[in-house]
Amino acid sequence: MKRILVPTDFSMEAENALQTAIPIAEAFDATIILLHVLEVSSVDTFTETGNPASDEEISHSVHINENLKLAHDNFKRSFALHGLDNIDVKLEQYIRVGSANKQIEESIEKENIDFVIMGTKAAWGLTDILLGTSTDKLLRRVNCPVLSVNEVVPGDAFTKIVFPTTTYSKETGLVETIKKFQKAFGSKIFLVRINTPMHFMSDKDSIALLEEYAVDNNLINYESHVYSHTEEEDGIREFADYIKGGMIAVSTSAHTGLWKIIQGSVTKELVSHSKRPVLTLKMD
């Protein structure tokens, strides 16, 4: 993890994401890339030169220029707020014009991003992207881990990682990301299977599966747990409360029961409304 993207609309939630990114960047010796997107319906007048402009085009161009100035001012304010000029973290900042979803996706590719941190209640933050019409397409295309945060997350929140798994899923990428956090923050992994009536299994068999999963994935410094609940997502949240866990890590796939965690009202409750940071990564 060397290039961390933090999309920002300069809202409180986006600022929380930036503040959270600082200890992570320090731990991984990574660069923080700040991205602000000016969402407009058309960008033609932004790039055209030498041609007479209509009143509408002039108004559009003026609007963009005003927002560009505002964005630069907001970057300065954000830097001052977080004392970014006085910390030993490398920073880059970009302003793009267009669709937030598209610009985030393109920036991940162009800027060689390998980690994204987003505020979950920002005007066009993770909440809107995950819950919007482009949910499935975006998650299937983005191959890097995404950490959603509701509040500022201190570095010690990553010392207890809650990792719910069905044990049937191939989660190599997510496991490797968890291991990186574990190495950087000295974390303990709390491997858990949520036992629901629909997918009930004895505790003995569940623990055996979790232990096998841990061995197959070469996990160290971990505990295996079974937590019973009528609903998988509520069970994850309650288990995290029970152990006073920090980050919750879940894979995303349309082919596992955990897929519902990142859809509809369940996502809004677990990801958007959770005070804990939630790490998601598309399954291999």
Task: Write a compact overview of the structure shown.
The protein has 284 residues and is of the alpha/beta class.
Would you mind describing this structure in some detail?
- The radius of gyration is 21 Å and the shape is elongated.
- The protein starts with a strand and ends with a strand.
- It folds into two domains: 3-149, 3-Layer(aba) Sandwich (Rossmann fold); 155-282, HUPs (Rossmann fold), CATH 3.40.50.
- It is an alpha/beta fold and 284 residues long.
- The chain has helices spanning 12-28, 44-47, 55-82, 100-110, 126-131, 135-141, 172-185, 203-216, 232-243, 264-272; strands at 3-7, 31-38, 90-97, 115-119, 146-149, 160-164, 188-195, 222-228, 248-252, 278-282.
What's the domain count?
A: 2
Q: What is the CATH topology assignment of the largest domain?
A: Rossmann fold
Task: State the share of residues found in helices, binned by percent.
Answer: 40-55%
Principal-axes geometry comes out as: elongated
What quaternary form is this?
Answer: single chain
- CATH homologous superfamily identity of the largest domain: HUPs
In CATH, the architecture of the largest domain is: 3-Layer(aba) Sandwich
Strand-helix topology:
Blueprint: E1 3-7, H1 12-28, E2 31-38, H2 44-47, H3 55-82, E3 90-97, H4 100-110, E4 115-119, H5 126-131, H6 135-141, E5 146-149, E6 160-164, H7 172-185, E7 188-195, H8 203-216, E8 222-228, H9 232-243, E9 248-252, H10 264-272, E10 278-282
Parallel strand pairs: 1-2, 1-4, 2-3, 4-5, 6-7, 7-8, 9-10
Antiparallel strand pairs: 5-10
